[in-house]
Piwi domain-containing protein (Rotaria sordida), 307 residues
Amino acid sequence: VDNLSQKINSKLGGINSVVNTKLALSRSSKEDLFMFFGADVTHSTCSTDRPSIAAVVASRDPTNTLYAARLCEQYPKKGRCSMEIIKELDQMVADLLRVFARTCGGRLPNKIVFYRDGVDEGQYQKVLDNEVNKIKTACRIVYGDRSLPKLIFIVVKKRHNTRFFLYDGKQTMNVQAGTVIDQDITHPSQFDFYLCSQAAIMGTSRPTLYHVLHDDIGFSSDDVQQLTYWLCHTDMRCTKSVSIPSPVHYAHLAAYGSRALKFNDDRESDDFDDDNNDEEPESYSIDDIKTKLMILDSKVADDMWFI
């Protein structure tokens, strides 16, 4: 009953709880206005005829509790599987920035935190060249003559084979929620870290790997890690910390939910895959993808219908 009540309240525009994320940032000032984004792309693994669906979700209030989503269908080149890159990201981000401004009395964020799910290490450069630039393009369109916001772009990777354990001399056990590993086994020159933000109810806990691809803000490693951990406590569907930050979890839910509604599929079907496709040929470019922005009913477009 509690879980159902939280979902109903969220869909009706209510707030279940608020986490003051600014307390997680040692270098944040009272004047800073943050906006949090999450993005994910789902692919149909059993057919190349169905489009991939890209979802971008963003906070739309100063407490970073309420979120809105924008969706886009991505049709691959005939006979090919789709790409992971979100082609219309600039339009989607610009629209969500306008939603934020309407909710916040015309104010726009001066700092943007963007979490991106489903990108493999081999596609990091493509993401930097395409998606990070598209986010900045969207900001230039919306901000006009105003100062542009600073951006941090973080890739979230759930699927890997790394596990961590505690050993007390007699037995091994799962690490506690909030455990961070950022040295020895991480990348020698790039900024990445493992965070186990959830408590394992059953079985072996699985940490999430985070890779910071771009940072204009200048966060310290402690700032990024603590902010990410705190965002794992803001999920409107749960009263405990979850395995990934709520913005990227919401993007995952929006992408899967919209595909289920459009194609009348089961939300739990295994025909969906939110990871990248490694079969992508070199000759296949983003220009070959045909897109179609999904228009949501105006009554729910800016609400948390995906919860």
